[in-house]
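Quick one: structure for this chain?
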Amino acid sequence: MGKTAFIFPGQGAQVCGMGQDFYEKTELGRQIFDRASELLGFSVPELCFEPNDRLDITEYTQAAMVTTSIAMLKVLEEMGVKADVTAGLSLGEYPALVAAGAMSVEDAILTVRRRGILMQEAVPNGIGGMNAVLGMTAEQINAVVDPIENVQVANYNCPGQIVISGKLDAVEIATEKLKEAGARRILPLNVSGPFHSYLLEEAGSQLGEFLERIPVHEPNIPYVANVNAKYVRSAENIKELLKKQVSSSVLWQQSIEAMIADGVDRFIEIGPGKTLAGFIKKIDRNVTVINIEKVEDLEKLI
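Got it. Here's what it folds into:
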């Protein structure tokens, strides 16, 4: 019998209406959304379910995404579905920490609200950007990007899809050189900042100060950290890893490979969209991925 992992998507997967049926059809889902509204001082259901401009603004997106994923997680746990390990892509690390028992629901929501504000304010609009590079290996991309100042690899998502981040002019220079080096396609990402780059180091430091006030517990199950793609089994370094994660590369492909090497053969993606399922299929087609984004999806687990 193989192992099961809970995995959670990051910023960019948000969509109007996410989590609405969990709010309307499950008592526990409603409680999570309503508790988030109490903590944050604004209506999270309104933010997530009704068309508005705020859902794509980082300081709101992060709280909305994490609340949605946690609401789905708690309904899943109530059904008795358990995981052996958990992980999340960037922002998705916070519901992963909740799933691992390392952080409370309330503290995760409050922390990502602060994280979103810090990341939003870190770099003025128009200064930085992120591009997805398709059709090149990590080694090929690093060979092009490393000599260029003010740009770096932000996400190792899966074979053939890697994201670069940094100052806009440096990202543009890197883009041209990557095209010359054989990139199949390069797509600008619709984000409000150069996330997971050195430009977010100060935001990470300020988040670290905020985290000093947040209780972090020994995980009940391990989670895999974005920063080093290693299993985290104790509370000792969690806050430092979360601080570094803001400006460090996300080692998502390496994280999935580490879980597969540990015997994980079933991944349950909890949250809006199927982004992580797409990545995993390119990493290893022999594992099973189940998406949970609607209440009806729970039937897949019965």
